[in-house]
Structures are given as C-alpha cells and as structure tokens.
Design brief:
The chain is mainly α. It has three domains: 12-200, Growth Hormone, Chain: A (Up-down Bundle); 203-257; 262-471, Up-down Bundle (Growth Hormone, Chain: A). It is built from 19 helices and no strands. It has helices at 14-33, 38-45, 53-77, 79-98, 103-131, 134-165, 170-173, 175-189, 203-222, 229-252, 267-297, 302-308, 310-330, 332-348, 359-385, 390-422, 428-448, 450-453, 463-467. The longest helix has 33 residues, at 390-422. It is globular and about 65 Å long. The two termini are 16 Å apart. The relative contact order is 0.13.
C-alpha cells in the first residue's frame, strides 16, 4: 500500500497514523528481535538456553494480562495520557532489560515492558478509530498494519547482527531513542479521546481472568520441574482452572463483564477463539525453537540464523494475499482444516533438519512454514470476527488479541517444558534429539486444532471481509 494513501482524503490524520505506526513497530520489533539473541543471553547470564523460554513467555503473558484493562484505562484517563504512559513503561522496561544481571531480573523487566506493550497497540488503534472518518478507516488500518509486518521481517536479523557486532544488551537499548522520539511526538500529535459515558471497571472479573491466565501459564512452564515442584505445578493448574471457571460464572451474571458470554453465542466466534488458542500454541513455540535449532543444534552464528528468518517473514507477507483467493474459492472450513494439517506437518518436518541437510531444502522448509502459518493466522482471525455485530466488535476484538498473546506465552512455555523433558542439557547430539522431538510435539498440538475447525459451517465469505483482517 502507498503510505500516502491514508492521508489522501484528509492530510491532518497522517501524523497520527505515523505515530501509531511507530508504537506498533517498536512493540513488534521487540517481540521478534529477542529470538535470535536467546543463546547469547543465556551464555552471558550463566544459564542454559533451555531456561530462556521464560524471557519470551513472561512478556507475552504480561501483554495478555493487561490488554483487558487497556481500553477502560484509555476511556477513563484519555488516549493521550494512556499512550504516553505506555511509551514510558515500555522504554523503562527496555532499559531495565539491558541492565539485567540475572535471568530473574530480566524476566521482571520483560513484565514491565509487557505492561507498556499491552497499551501501545490497543490504545493507538482506538485513537485512530475515533479520529479517522469511517470512509478512510480501512485505508488507515491497512497503513498502521505495515509495521506489524515489518517488525518480524527485521527483528531476527537485526537481533543477530547486534549480538555479533556489539552485545545482546543492544537489542533493548535501541528502544530508548525510539521511545524518546515517540514520546515527544505523542505530546504534540496524540488526540485526547475519552469515553462519553463512564462505566465501572469489572475488577472482580479482571482479577479472576488474570489469575487464571497467570496460574495456568506458570503451571505449564513449571512442568519442566522435578520432584516437589510437581506439587506446585498441580496447585497452580487447579487454581488457574478454578479462577477461569469463577470468571465464567461471574460473567454470566454481570451486566458489565469484560467479555460478555453473549460473544460465545456466535458460532464462528467461539470456534475461531478456540481454534486460535490451540493452533497458536504450536505457532508460538516456533520463534523460540527455530533459532535454537539453527544456533545450538547446527552451530550457526546469530547473524546467519537471523538471516534465515527473512524468508519466513517474506513468504508470510506474500501468502496473506493468497488467503483471500483461497477462502473465496473453497470456503473457511475446507481451507482451515487443510491448512492446519499443512502447518502441523511443516512444524514436524524440522525433525529432518541435520548438519548434512541441503541448505536449499532447509530454506524450502522455512518458506513453506511461513506461507502456511500466515494463511492460518489470516483466515482464523477473519472467522473469529466476521459475524460479530457493532456492539460486540470491541470486546470480541480485545478477547482475540488476548488469546493471541496468551497462546504465544503458552507456546513458549510448552516448548521449554518439552525440551526439558527430552533432554536436560542442550549440548551436542542430545540437543538435536531434544529439539527434533519437540518439533514433532508442537506439530501434533497444532494438528489437534483441526478437531475445532471441523465444527465450522461450510460456507463461502464475502472476499472483502478477509481483506480487512490483518494479523
């Protein structure tokens, strides 16, 4: 898309779109730049690469936990103050990450980053929704979605390069000048929208939902523990399930629930949400597993490993257009069932990656994974949101964003636990064997989501609906 397109109808909105794009780029870059740096970070902190999944899932869990509150905070305090606070928290979190002397410090700093990141995207998108005329909204949303595609394209390579020429600390330090520029720009550009009517925040529902997510995530990550730790894992799992069950009962009797249960009366939404959750657990593990496979398993440098992630991002960008044509011709159900199988098999195919494998075959595997994964995300998102009415759109979109981040955290935690199960130390042949077994398992997890998509009605959409959904 031409960057000037959103401003063609009203040039006064162009600065706001660039500002929101900067915030999204900062968040998406940070979500991917860390992956190729994990082995170097583990060595610097005196940890095993096996233990570094907490750096990934703590950020994703923090974002998921604070997304439900971001809209209410913006409505109460205004989009301007909330966006400025998000930039400050994200930038301070980045500085704390760079100064981290231990893994525990780094995880805590990533949580602070996640709190800021949880408000950057939703609040920026809310400001655009309330500022841009309806006839220009699609063009505006397409424009600010470009950084979401560019971040994964640049992140792994930039991270690998920074590790080689400087140190892993710089993958966080580069956020400082970006954050300062964003803060100064937001002071001048960000409008101060507030809700016309104040509503009470559903604090009991939020606490139960957050407790459930945190407890289940920690339980999943704690599966890698041994001995008495298993009792704590069981306790956390039960607490998490009880908290989510409590939220379900609370929402059934509350008039201002964060996510009303009426959303799940929409067939496509409930199938799409559940399908997103289970399918994305496998996808969420791959950004952690692929760099480990390339660097720890094959002995590649961080820079070369990052370069190999470029074909994944490029193929994903190209495949988004193909998703429209495929769904228009074959329908949601057929495409999701077939493509889910392709994604799962593409993940499991990394079991054949060895030092003796042809580099071209390895490149083909990465391209196929990027293609199938991109189609999966685009079609799943469309299915989830397509049948929601105007009143349900905001809460439905927020719940989808929450599930996306939560599944990313679950995926990283599951990958770490599986690696710990298959091998306690990532070194030599044991590392490759553990990685191969883990790829097969995450592929099987993804394949299981076909049982969810099987329940979809077999219909064909308006192709314009697919075009409006951007990952």
């Amino acid at each position: 898309m031409n960057p000037a397109a959103p401003a063609s109808g009203n040039a006064t909105h162009r600065p706001l779109l660039w500002l929101v794009s900067l915030g999204i780029f900062m968040q998406m870059l940070d979500s991917t730049i860390i992956n190729t740096a994990l082995p170097a970070m583990a060595h610097s902190l005196g940890e095993s690469p096996l233990q570094m999944q907490s750096v990934v899932f703590s950020y994703a869990l923090a974002v998921a936990s604070f997304i439900p509150a971001s809209g209410w905070i913006a409505d109460r305090l205004g989009t301007r103050r909330t966006f400025l606070a998000a930039i400050i928290l994200f930038t301070l979190g980045s500085l704390a990450c760079a100064l981290s002397p231990t893994l525990q410090w780094l995880v805590a700093a990533r949580v602070l980053q996640g709190i800021g990141g949880a408000m950057l995207l939703p609040v920026g998108r809310l400001a655009v929704m309330r500022s841009v005329p309806r006839e220009q909204f699609l063009a505006a949303m397409s424009f600010i979605a470009i950084p979401a595609l560019m971040g994964p394209l640049m992140g792994p390579t930039l991270g690998g390069w920074l590790v080689e020429v400087a140190s892993w600390h710089w993958i966080f330090l580069i956020n400082l000048p970006i954050g300062m520029i964003g803060f100064i720009a937001a002071l001048r550009i960000m409008p101060d929208h507030r809700a016309q009517q104040r509503t009470r925040f559903d604090l009991p529902g939020y606490l139960m939902l957050a407790l459930g997510m945190v407890a289940l995530s920690l339980a999943l990550d704690g599966i890698s523990g041994v001995g008495p730790a298993h009792a704590l894992v069981m306790l956390l799992a039960v607490i998490g399930i009880a908290a989510l069950a409590g939220y379900w009962l609370h929402a059934a009797g509350s008039g201002n629930a964060l996510f009303p249960l009426s959303l799940f009366k929409v067939v496509s939404f409930r199938i799409g949400i559940l399908g997103n959750l289970f399918s994305r657990i496998g996808s969420g593990a791959m950004p952690l597993l692929i760099p480990l496979l390339l660097q720890v398993g094959l002995g590649m440098s961080p820079m070369n490993a990052g370069m190999l992630m470029i074909p994944v991002a490029l193929s994903a960008m190209v495949a988004k257009r193909a998703a429209v044509t495929l769904v228009e011709r074959f329908g949601y159900r057929r495409i999701l069932m077939l493509n889910t199988v392709c994604v799962g098999l593409a993940m499991a195919s990394f079991v054949f990656v060895t030092p003796e494998q042809s580099p071209w075959l390895r490149l083909l595997q990465l391209v196929l994974f990027g293609t199938f994964n991109s189609i999966q995300f685009t079609v799943m998102n469309t299915v989830t949101l397509r049948d929601l009415d105007t009143a349900q759109a905001s809460s439905g979109n927020s719940l989808l964003s929450l599930v996306m981040m939560l599944a990313t955290g679950f995926g990283a935690a599951a990958a770490g636990s599986l690696l710990a199960t298959f091998g306690t130390h990532l070194s030599g042949d044991d590392a490759m064997s553990a990685l191969h077994a883990t790829f097969v398992c995450v592929g099987a997890i993804t394949l299981s989501s076909t049982l969810v998509f099987w329940q979809l009605p077999d219909n064909h959409p308006d192709p314009r609906a697919v075009e409006e959904v951007v990952e």
